[in-house]
Write a structure and sequence with these properties.
alpha/beta, 9-stranded mixed sheet, 529 residues, 7-stranded beta/alpha barrel, globular, 9 strands, immunoglobulin/albumin-binding domain-like
Length: 529
């Protein structure tokens, strides 16, 4: 009998980036890199666990924007083109490095990985990785949850509760469209919680959500078991589960955590910047700028010294196994210390961005693989679990009100509301009010063209509300793109609003923006009413 439980949560999210107006677009690489380096390796881990009959549980959010891209035929086609390009490059690298034994075996490794990625994507899952995630969801091993429709940061939307409700309800409907049933849980975007959000979740059928540590530690009254048991929100009855800081920091911190170990692969040393430009030109984007190509030959080596040593995959794999054992040992000791003071088994919640595993931390999927296998075969103190399973076993939880909170820098709103991005909110708030006005005024509108315009207005508002744009403005990466996306969606919404109000809809222009921003085909503007 386990003394306690570990709930490992991966938040799989990317903003909606799809540009059919261009044959080739740099920011679409965010999706292609995540497919190759994170999602396919994670599905391979799950395949292996099932093949070897290990008992495992993993929770994963697949955000509606990510699901929309993974299921989009254009992006599926472009991913195959992308991976074919990398296969061609790795073939050239095998030839180029034939007299460099320290790199030659790595060129072969990348070539095999790219070939494997294409096989899994095309042959195993029919160009749609959602088929893979749904398979393990249906088996009961992978607990899939939803998110706000476009990852809108809800604490900064509380001036319009209809807008929050739309983010949640559309997220639930999209989840059901892709996975066959509505979700039990939700990842609040950026773990952003404000009192009252849980009541919206209840109305949408959500049973539980996650918050950062201080969201529960500062709850009123203070929870008896801290972050090691779910709490129940008093007005809604929805469960809140908080992140365990100790287990999280061991993994996500590049300074104190496992990913910073010197034997692991260095993310930043990529052939896209290391090799001759003319040699790389056929494999770069049409605009001709250097970018990450996913072939990286060096290990971290040192933070102080510029010189890097060649990457050694087997040494890194052994280290990942060692770190998985260390993580499991620490959770065992944590549970042994907590269990005597509790009337139920302690629950340790360890949530991370999914893209940490494989993309940023190359050995991350191997670490997960080792960890889940070690938990199954090497000890009995802890077991992996999903939140619905835990709540079914321990339904009597303390009733207490979580506090306003988010994860990220300083734990409140500073990342998404500060000098670099505060200008966006006057537009987002006005557009949300206008969307509610349109939905209430037009009701069940029978005119097909006007209904199309109303639904597209909802899409443009949702896309403008994505927290990713404010985050990018704050971090200073791809800022021009984040500015452009915000302005485009706000401008499109305002044009649609004016055309709907004047009953003068420009159908050719509407068709064009429907083609470009085509997510959520079943969206219904009346959700804002």
């Amino acid at each position: 009998m386990a003394q306690g439980y570990l709930c490992l949560v991966l938040h799989a999210h990317l903003p909606f980036v799809r540009h059919p107006e261009f044959d080739d677009f740099l920011e679409e690489d965010w999706l292609y890199e995540a497919i190759t380096e994170t999602y396919i390796p994670l599905l391979d881990v799950m395949d292996g666990l099932e093949r070897d009959r290990a008992d495992w549980r993993l929770t994963m959010s697949v955000t509606p924007t990510l699901a929309a891209m993974l299921s989009d035929p254009l992006l599926q086609y472009r991913y195959v083109r992308h991976i074919d390009n990398l296969i061609a490059l790795s073939t050239k690298e095998i030839e180029r490095t034939r007299w460099q034994p320290e790199f030659h075996h790595l060129a072969h490794m990348y070539h095999n990985r790219f070939e494997r990625a294409k096989h899994v994507f095309v042959n195993q899952y029919g160009n749609n990785l959602l088929n893979g995630f749904r398979r393990f969801f249906d088996l009961g091993k992978l607990e899939l949850i939803t998110c706000g429709a476009t990852h809108g940061f809800m604490p900064l939307m509380t001036n319009n509760w209809n807008a929050i409700r739309a983010q949640v309800e559309i997220g639930c409907r999209e989840f059901a469209r892709h996975f066959g049933k509505r979700p039990q849980g939700i990842w609040l975007p950026e773990c952003g919680y404000a009192p009252g959000v849980d009541e919206v979740l209840r109305d949408c059928g959500i049973r539980y959500f996650f918050v950062d540590t201080h969201g529960v530690l500062f709850a009123e009254p203070r929870p008896k078991y801290g972050v090691y048991a779910p709490i129940i929100c008093p007005k809604s009855g929805v469960a809140a589960v908080a992140r365990d800081t100790e287990s999280s920091k061991q993994v996500w911190s590049a300074i104190e955590g496992y990913p910073g170990d010197y034997v692991y692969r260095d993310f930043y040393r990529d052939v896209g910047f290391d090799l001759d430009f003319e040699y790389l030109r056929p494999h770069l984007h049409q605009m001709g700028i250097r970018s990450h190509l996913g072939i990286k030959y060096y290990k971290i080596t040192s933070r102080e010294l510029p010189h890097k040593q060649p990457y050694q995959p087997q040494v890194a794999l052994d280290k990942a196994a060692e770190h998985a054992g260390n993580f499991m040992f620490n959770r065992e000791k944590q549970v042994e210390w907590l269990a005597p003071a509790m009337d139920r088994p302690p629950l340790i919640l360890a949530p991370y961005d999914a893209e940490l595993f494989g993309h940023w931390w190359f050995e991350g999927p191997d670490w997960i693989n080792f960890l889940l296998r070690k938990i199954h075969w090497d000890q009995q103190n802890i077991k992996t679990i999903s939140i619905p399973e835990y709540l079914d076993r321990h339904s009597r939880c303390q009733i207490t009100q979580p506090s306003f909170s988010s994860w990220g820098y300083k734990g409140y709103c500073e990342v998404w509301l500060e000098g670099s991005n505060d200008w966006i909110y006057r537009h987002l708030h006005e557009n949300a009010d206008r969307m509610v006005e349109l939905a209430k005024h037009h009701g069940d509108h029978g005119h097909q063209l006007k209904r199309r315009a109303l639904n597209q207005a909802a899409r443009e508002l949702l896309l403008a509300q994505s927290s990713d744009w404010a985050f990018i403005m704050k971090t200073g990466t791809m800022v021009d793109y984040a500015h452009d996306r915000t302005r485009v969606h706000v401008s499109n919404f305002n044009h649609l609003y004016d055309q709907i109000k004047s009953n003068d809809i420009d159908e050719p222009w509407l068709s064009e923006i429907e083609r470009r921003h085509n997510l959520f085909p079943d969206v219904d503007y009346r959700v804002y009413a």
